[in-house]
Records
---
Amino acid sequence: MATQQQQPRVGYDDTPFIPGQKYRVHDSTRPQPRVVTPGTESTQERAGRPPSDAVILFDGTDLSGWVANPRSGSSDGPARWKVENGYMEVVPRSGGIRTREEFGDCQVHLEWAAPAEVVGNSQGRGNSGVFLMNRYEIQVLDCYDNPTYADGTTAAVYGQHPPLVNACRKPGEWQTYDIIWTAPRFDGERLVSPAYVTMFHNGVLVHNHREVLGPTAHRKVTPYEPHPPVGPLSLQDHGNPMRFRNIWYRPLNLHGQA
Ligand code: MG
């Protein structure tokens, strides 16, 4: 009887090559996929656990992985948001924060909750934002029964693309974002390839390989400007006490895949 230790040879070496690839169909020499232990799902009561190869950006205990973000209304220095009960909370008008980690292509997971007590409307209600590479905003907003302009709704690529659907939970409930980010590529001053985003909000597809048109701006679309291949993830202080928990990413190389 074959055991795992014996590693019986599997596959074939007399089959045709797969078009565009260096391996044959069922190739016996093709490397096995890397093993990743999956995480666990979050519940309303408790954050889940990240998969085994995730880089943890916020585990609910402290803001050691974060600093104030001068690009988002802060002066340099420590992040000044509050941490309690396993989440961080925006201290309104303290300014945005960003990660110390910098990365390009990635899978990002984060969870957020808008205040249970509804205050304001449209863009004034439960507003924050997730900025990939500190430039490209995925909107965070409480759009549960809260109309606003479509390209500024929850999970919109702000000012560019509304989400496919509005998958908001009620204010006060925890919501999940799972984002697959393909960073833009530059050759000197020239844009070689724009950024793309695929994304789930509360497990519902809201963007499928959506082309990002340029860095986020208000009331206009601005062209790409060259920037380094990695950048921090930042969170916006838009004046509302939004909460975040369980933030992690997995580095990817989406241009390197066959
Ligand atoms: Mg925002």
---
Amino acid sequence: MDCLFCSIIKGDIPSKKVYEDDSVLAFYDINPQAPVHILIIPKEHITSAADITAANSAVVAHIFEAASKLAGEAGLSDGFRIVTNCGDSAGQSVKHLHFHLLGGRDFTWPPG
Ligand code: AMP
Ligand code: ZN
């Protein structure tokens, strides 16, 4: 299967890693939308949030543990945003589940 983020996990495509363990990888977004913009992904290929089930959801909890830790390390004490785009209408461009951890600026609500 041709998946950009699976290639990053395998090391076939380079990334600026900020966190890694057995089930999760976090790396800097190549096109940052905020002073801090980290992508946190499961090492298991899950296509999107629409594919999260009881069988694979534990890694999502683990991703949020990593997000909390990374936000603290990045000094985002004023706040941060975690976003997952699911499907074409939401603008999901990479079809491997990922959570954007964004911080270092103010964000508007509702999102565009
Ligand atoms: P989304 O549009 O929600 O699917 O998010 C995909 C994200 O992946 C975008 O923010 C891209 O900038 C980012 N991205 C694409 N290719 C790379 C790459 N090689 N390394 C790091 N981030 C990437
Ligand atoms: Zn993948």
